[in-house]
Amino acid sequence: MTAPDQPETTQNLQVPPEHARVWMARGARAAVSIPAFILTAAFVGYAGLARESGLTLVETLAMTGLVWALPSIVVLTGAISSGMGMIPAGIAVALASVRLMPMTMALMPLIKVPGKTRTWQLLIASHFVAVTAWVFAMKHLPDMPREGRLPFFIGFGGAVTSFVFCMTGVSYLLVESMPGMVAGALFLLTPVYFLCSLWGAARLNADRAAMVAGLLLGPVFFIYLPGLDLLWTGLVGGTIAYIGTRIVRRGLS
Amino acid sequence: MDGSTAGGLLSETWWPLAMIIVAGWFATDVWRWLGVFAGGRLREDGELLIWVRCVATALVAGVISKLILFPQGVLAETPLWLRLAAASFGFASFFAARQRVFVGVLAAEVFLVAGWLLLDAMAS
């Protein structure tokens, strides 16, 4: 944000194909980071829950790689271990994952080079949309030249996913020898990490207001409208935050 | 885990994987794909996108407070006030450390484990 943009002006014009690989490598290198480390720890905590819920190693890993969104993974684990049918489980997971659509929508204008980026490239990149990579991308991508953003994001997402995938498998095998308090502490790690990083990624007052609204409304809807609670929290909390801050910004127009 | 209805051992192996693919992978990635198709038409600084980001942020915030208030597994054994205090302490430390996520997470963890050990010591 504060770095001078001067050296980047030439890259902004046109970037030959080999630069994409350079940006991808840069993304992979940026993945060696505190957020990725914390996410890994959260998945180590999840491996404990998966084993406790009776999932096999293959199932745990398939879920980590294919779903790649911790809240949805936690919902699906609960659904499988309680013997829920495929349709209700799918609906529950889909509701827990709705937030990925607005998140992906918000990311697309950042990583897309109009008239150049192919849709299939965006579809591949979209699989890495989850809180960690999204927060990191929303914060750092605007400072990069447009052409570098998509390969950087894919490099970052791919590296984080592969590393977390391996560590989840390793910790699944080791978790039996882990004391209960360590596993419990690992479970608190996820929400506190989400809490801090979401605030860090907020760019406007609207984002911060939405976060506060979601924190307060989440438990209320969970008690009164279980199942659909996350969807309502997002729609009601987000809309209140948007309208409230819009009135502050532009008055009642 | 209920494989007795269809085909014994085979369905016991394949049913959870089918669940993961349909109820997990598809139910999650379909939103990402929809986001790709819908997001291409949004401008980066448009009013609609501000609203969309508000909805996404509020949703994730809802997940956060659910994980703290209604946790799963071993963490559910801790009292609610301890989890809230640990999370608040972590968030306050995050600000005190100029918004460094690592500090916030570490502070919350130290607070939780210290409180947990203290409660265990008092109980025994």
UniProtKB/TrEMBL annotation, chain B:
- Tree of life domain: Bacteria
Q: Does the keyword Cell wall biogenesis/degradation apply?
A: no
| InterPro entries per the UniProt record, alphabetical | Brnchd-chn_aa_trnsp_AzlD (IPR008407)
Task: Tell me the organism.
Answer: Roseibium aggregatum (strain ATCC 25650 / DSM 13394 / JCM 20685 / NBRC 16684 / NCIMB 2208 / IAM 12614 / B1) (Stappia aggregata)
| Positions of transmembrane segments | 14-36, 48-68, 80-96, 101-119
UniProt keyword terms in alphabetical order: Membrane, Transmembrane, Transmembrane helix
| Coiled coil location | none
Q: Pfam families from the entry?
A: AzlD
Its name, as the record gives it, is: Branched-subunit amino acid transport protein AzlD
